[in-house]
Amino acid sequence: RKEVEQDPGPFNVPEGATVAFNCTYSNSASQSFFWYRQDCRKEPKLLMSVYSSGNEDGRFTAQLNRASQYISLLIRDSKLSDSATYLCVVNYTGTASKLTFGTGTRLQVTL
Amino acid sequence: DAGVTQSPTHLIKTRGQHVTLRCSPISGHKSVSWYQQVLGQGPQFIFQYYEKEERGRGNFPDRFSARQFPNYSSELNVNALLLGDSALYLCASVTGTGFFTTSTDTQYFGPGTRLTVL
B86-95: b or e for each residue (b if 16 or more CB lie within 10 Å)? Predict the structure, then answer.
């Protein structure tokens, strides 16, 4: 089983739609969680950190369910500029902070 | 403030050669991590350095090595290049001690070095 699993998509949604991505992780000792956004051939950029049960930033809401070991990202009122790959990231801190990335979920927002 | 810088941006090498990639973290950040991103996959952790010491290593062969300098910049070296080493190599600058223990701890990626091995 992969450490971090995401549906690769693509998710094709019209502008203004609400879309949700789920991500599951296998290490129950994972301590912190992130969503990154990556545009084609660019570096990942931090979208949101999730340290407690959830976080909200404008149109973006992340939720964490430790019991079921999944994290979700909800995007409301999708914009064309939201088109990107969304990477779910899980951190387990042992002797190092090793961020483990999912393969990403591709979102395409259309007119 | 300058973000994370990496050089070179692109590199083409042939099998068996050696490559050195460079990274300068954000000013004030003492921890640097390296990741490899193969097309269609998420980044994979290679190394983390903090205060010039290797703190952690991912599942990569000994052909991969790195170091961190007193000014916190870092180099990633790959020997005996294989075709499968073709990837985007990302350097990340990590806040604080490099452990993600508070809600303000985060990691910023540089633009990456795109390595092609022929």
Answer: bbbbbbbbbb
Task: Indicate the length of chain A as a whole number.
Answer: 111
pLDDT by 10-residue block (mean), chain B, 118 residues: 90 97 95 94 93 90 97 97 97 84 81 97
In B1-118, DSSP assigns E strands to: 5-7, 10-13, 19-24, 31-37, 44-50, 53-57, 64-68, 74-78, 87-94, 107-109, 113-117
All residues of chain A having their beta carbon less than 8 Å from the beta carbon of residue B110 are 43
Q: Which helix (H) or strand (E) holds A109?
A: strand A105-110
Q: Do A96 and B43 touch (CB under 8 A)?
A: no
B100 reaches A (C-beta below 8 A): yes
Q: What is the pLDDT of residue A35?
A: 95
| Residue A106: predicted pLDDT | 96
Q: Closest Cα to residue A22, out of A76, A67, A64, A79? A: A64
Q: Which amino acid is located at A53 in the chain? A: S
Which residues fall within 8 angstroms of residue A1, CB to CB, at 6 or more apart? A26
Neighbour tally for A41: CB within 10 Å: 10
Dist CA B29 CA B39 (whole Å): 29
B22: its two tokens: 């460079």
What does the pLDDT read at residue A12?
96
Q: Which residues of B touch A94 (CB under 8 A)?
A: 56
Token pair 């070296």 is found at B77
From the number of C-beta atoms within 10 Å of its C-beta (0-12, 13-18, 19+), residue A13 rates as middle
